[in-house]
Amino acid sequence: MSGKNLRLKTSKAGEKKSCTFDQLIILSIMHKINFLILTTFIFLISCGNHKSETGSKTSPEKMTVAAYFDRTGHDDILSGGVKMIPIQTAAGTFKVWTKRTGNNPTIKVLILHGGPGASHQYLEAFDSFFPGEGIEYYYYDQLESGFSDQPNDTSLWHVERFVDEVEQVRQALGLDRDNFYLYGQSWGGILALEYALKHQEHLKAVIISNMMCSIPDYNKYAHEVLGPQLNPEVLSEIKKLEAAGDFQNPKYIELITEYYYPEHVLRMPLEDWPEPVVRDFSQTNEAFYVSMQGPSEFGSVGNSRLKNWDRKKDLPKITVPTLTMGGTYDTMDPEHMKWMAGQVQHGRYVHCPNGSHLSMYDDQEIYFKGLIQFIRDVDQGTF
Fold first, then answer.
1. Between 20 and 30 A from 311 (CA), which of 2, 40, 347, 354?
2. Residue 186 among the catalytic residues
């Protein structure tokens, strides 16, 4: 719009421009109306901003970077989030290693690793997903594993004592039913399920990843489904070595590593396995693992402490929101894990169509999308 179009009255050539008294009154009223419209608009915007800042719950996607990494009130700053927690046992006091990442008052995930005898290290892929979602989480090495004390005391190697250990860790970290999500993978899934059955009053939700609720059913699946999927000659050789109890034979280890692991443990060529997995597997507490799980990769056999573990009948007792997770090629039966979600009071199952036992790597996007969505839904009260 050009300047000449703004004139109120145009005089004849050579005469000065002027406004009548009535026109000045109209102009003054127009200015006042424009001012009122402008101030009302600014007021409404400021009220809207105030409502969005104070009238709604902070969700992971709205959390600021500064708030997520705020160090205020934490006593683990010098150690980068690491805290050694004393654990009372019948054999004395030992320390277990934990590490916190982030802050979120309503979402705190305690991660239970598998094995038994592995450590948090193979789960370090969580670092690529949880911080960006504003999820506070804790790595934790169980007694006899990783950076925690390893007394090598077999009297401590039973499920009930490890459940008590998890409860002591929870108390030390200050987790409660308003924020406490318990995640367990493989053997960690056994602990998470057992903890939920004993202490679910402290839980906000529980996640059982890549773990069936019955070792006898797992053994059956391994022998009737997984074994026959191998090359018949390979399976025959593996069975001969297992029948002879020759589990440390280099040939047995070679056959399992070359033919079984890349199909059902992590579906990548061995040379492409992620460094955290390789690092962790090379440090597994073998004596602890064999005592609990047994020496075979086809189920829990021999005198293993877990061979009769079965909680199928107890699943309906779990009332907190529950997520089970499995993969098509898992060492655990995905249909069984889906069935588990239907047996608890409030369950959901996430299936990884390309996943194996370590679906957080070989079907990563689907795995973490399902896991994070569950956490969000529970936090927002929409589960």
1. 354
2. yes
Residues 218-275: tens digit of each pLDDT: 999 999 999 999 999 999 999 999 999 999 999 999 999 999 999 999 999 999 999 9
Instruction: List the domain range (segments joined by +) for residue 315.
Output: 65-217+304-380
Residue with tokens 């005089």: 11
Residue 48 covered by a domain: no
pLDDT in tens, 187-207: 999 999 999 999 999 999 999
The answer as to whether 259 is a domain residue is no
Residue 208's CATH number? 3.40.50.1820
Q: What is the pTM of this model?
A: 0.84
Contacts of 165 (CB under 8 A, 6+ apart): 87, 89, 96, 142, 143
**Catalytic-residue membership of 141:** no
Active-site annotation holder among 119, 145, 148, 186: 186
Q: Is residue 360 part of a domain?
A: yes
Catalytic residue among 120, 357, 359, 379: 357
Name the active-site residue from 141, 149, 280, 330.
330
Number of domains comprising the chain? 1
**How would you classify the pairing of strands 92-101 and 82-89?**
antiparallel
